[in-house]
Amino acid sequence: MTTPHVVVGVDGSDPSMAAVRWAAAEAASRRISLRIVHAEASPARSPQGSPGGSLHEEWVRDRIATACRETAERYPEVEISGGATTETAVKALLEAAQDGELLVLGSRGIGAASGFMTGSVALPVVAHATGPTVLVREDWHPDTADDDLPVVVGVDLDHRFDPVLEFAFATAHRTRSPLRVVHMWRRSSVYAYPSALPDPKVGADLKAVAQENLASALGRWRARHPDVEVERVLLDGEVAPGLLEEAAGARLLVGGRRTHKHLMFPTLIGPVTHALMHHAIAPVAVVPHE
Q1: Which one of 10, 19, 126, 202 has the lowest number of neighbouring Cβ atoms within 10 Å?
Q2: CA-wise closest residue to 172 among 218, 103, 215
Q3: CB 9 within 8 A of CB 103
Q4: CA–CA separation, 77 and 88 (whole Å)
């Protein structure tokens, strides 16, 4: 029987080192073990900042050894396992994640006003993972984490989002963090064409319905986790910008990815999730759901 564990992908880059730190903290929080997966890369696919040629793998091994040593010193209760594989990174990570509770990847920032850059590994992994995947920015460090920061989750009432709320409530409960639930409703959805003078009563009615539906959707989760402080945020507007604004400075931003079968484009993850992966400052958890 496989013991519960968090899986983290490492390639020696700074973002992957941050991912190890985040994954170790999460494993300690869950009181489970940590499994490190490293897919050996050719020099042409070496991460930015690494030496080329035959020195690459030695450089990666040294960085992984350092990460393991630092993790053992900070979290002596966390059992660490894993190693290198000659499989491609995507295949190795997806296989390792099948029996893990969580998969963690590093993502490189793309500018002062931007967040994650999804690449040839992160995008297909997130698109095909059957469990939650967390993307961590390279500047994340446990010493800078604030215990008072909220977990933020985006809720789409048009789809079956129970796994997303389950993950968000469980995280808030475990970390003793407040939970901010964000639901975007759109006044424009009732107009056949853009209106310069929208009826204010229409907006008030739509918001009232959204409030009622959200309260109903959260009912059983609040009953399961009565200790979690819940803040409901309803906004009129586009989903991704609203979520990104509400999640500025969050401990974790939780979003969903609808599972698609028999798609022509197997790496489709949805425009909102894609935007969160690219631009969120906080770590982003992507939870698959029907």
Answers
A1: 202
A2: 218
A3: yes
A4: 31
In angstroms, the first-to-last Cα distance of the chain is: 28
* Euclidean distance between CA atoms 248 and 250, whole angstroms: 6
pTM to 2 decimals?
Answer: 0.86
Tens digits of residue pLDDT in 219-277: 999 999 999 999 999 988 888 999 999 999 899 999 998 876 655 455 578 888 888 98
Residues, the chain, total?
A: 290
pLDDT 10s digit of each residue in the chain, 290 long? 678 999 999 888 888 899 999 999 999 999 999 999 988 754 445 555 555 555 777 888 898 899 899 999 999 999 999 877 888 888 999 999 999 999 999 986 443 333 343 467 888 899 899 999 999 988 888 877 777 899 999 988 777 788 999 999 999 999 999 999 999 876 655 555 555 556 666 667 778 888 898 999 999 999 999 999 999 999 888 889 999 999 998 999 999 988 766 554 555 788 888 889 888 989 999 999 87
Cα torsion 92, 23, 267, 157: sign: positive
Q: At 141, list the tokens.
A: 């460090």
Cα(90)–Cα(19) distance, rounded to whole angstroms? Answer: 16
Q: Which amino acid is at 213?
A: N
